[in-house]
Amino acid sequence: MKQEEKLNLMNEKENSNQTIQNPHIWPPFTQLTSSKPQLLVEKAKGALLLPKNRAPIIDGISSWWVTLHGHANEYIAKAIATQAEQLEQIIFADFTHPQAELLANRLSKLTGLEKLFFSDNGSTAVEVALKMARQWWKNKGDNRSQIIAFEGAYHGDTFGAMAVGERNIFSEPFDQMLFPVSRVPWPETWWGDEDFERREKEVLETLDHLLKTPTIAVIIEPLVQGAGGMRMVRSEFLVEVEKRIRHANSLLITDEVLTGFGRCGELFAFQRAGLKPDLISLSKGLTGGFLPMGVTMSSKKISEGFLGEDPKQTFWHGHSFTANPLGCAAANASLDLLERSPQKYLDFESRHLPHLQKIVKDPRIECPRITGTIAAFNIKVKANKGYLNSVGKIMKASALSVGVFIRPLGDVVYLMPPLCITDQELEKCYFGIQEGLNALS
Ligand SMILES: *Cc1c(COP(=O)(O)O)cnc(C)c1O
What we know:
Layout: H1 3-15, E1 43-45, E2 48-50, E3 57-59, H2 62-65, H3 74-86, H4 98-111, E4 115-119, H5 122-139, E5 146-150, H6 159-164, E6 182-184, H7 196-210, E7 215-220, E8 224-225, E9 231-232, H8 235-247, E10 251-255, H9 269-273, E11 279-282, E12 294-298, H10 300-304, H11 325-340, H12 343-346, H13 348-359, E13 365-371, E14 374-379, H14 391-401, E15 404-405, E16 412-415, H15 423-440
Parallel strand pairs: 3-15, 5-6, 5-7, 7-10, 10-11
Antiparallel strand pairs: 1-2, 2-3, 4-12, 8-9, 11-12, 13-14, 14-16
Bound molecules: pyridoxal-5'-phosphate.
């Protein structure tokens, strides 16, 4: 049977279990004509989604990488409920509140960066970092304009975040309207890769060359490029990148929207890699995945560049829901849980390891890799490499038929479970992946 036919057949089987798509809802990243209806879920607990009239589904990707400790975690739910009865929202330009104070103190201590600036999501946390970096130079009377980013990067969907991300089918309608960005390749690596040194060297040479032009900042997803395909690099490479940034007197922005809060095996990926960023963007796991919130941490050097009586020195940026007290309460509760049991993220790699070692023996896969809670590999495909390859859809449908939710990035299959996942549930995730692989041949 052809792969496309197989996919259609699977979809039909699955659709019998689903509602029809609500005509008034426009889902994200979704082709409105041909996509399957959304599945209705009223409850979730821990690593499990619990749709009505259907067996539980294991959330193998933490609901788009946000659910950190597990769904409906009682400790975080209580913290939000308690806060909601105290103070639900307040204008943060003129007032502050205990949860925001606490969160700022904690994140400043944990990251070593002085100040915290609140926004609403990952994209805005990146926008803020980019705007701060540009204005920091401008405030010094320096009108430099080059920003350097990596090929394959994803930094969000608003215009500035799109501009620094890879130009592709997602950005194509807007490409003309995005500010120019200089780019260097991303020397991703994997188990058994023997050629990484040569690739890293080439990238560093390109970077050296670009940094001869005065540069606002280099923006990096530390250790793992997420949406670009769970592409992992070595810490040693990132350290060399930072050396060059310092030598050129530029700034380093680490976009930790995905990698922060234990995802990469330490609290923050920049710490594991041994970097000292000037600006850090955080979101996704920040509130344990309960509420949308973004923050941008900035070093003392950056914030000092905004001191002065001249209104022009001000960072004129803010969002209506800045420092929403419910979000702050959730974030503080999530930090409590991370502090209480750090081994949950410190040890996660060793839980993936035996499963991935087993699955790499499958001749249909290549480039296995693990960083922290993220395990990934590529499906070998002959043509149409990348996000639009349909093998991912086949894998997804057949894993779902055995109760495992994954969402491959085209030919890249990965797991990124919540920290609460049990050994049995994790084993089942890999069983779901094996089912998916079997459906391919
Ligand atoms: C998801 C993501 C973003 C965007 O975050 P949103 O909350 O979806 O806007 C930015 N950067 C990285 C690295 C991400 O993974």
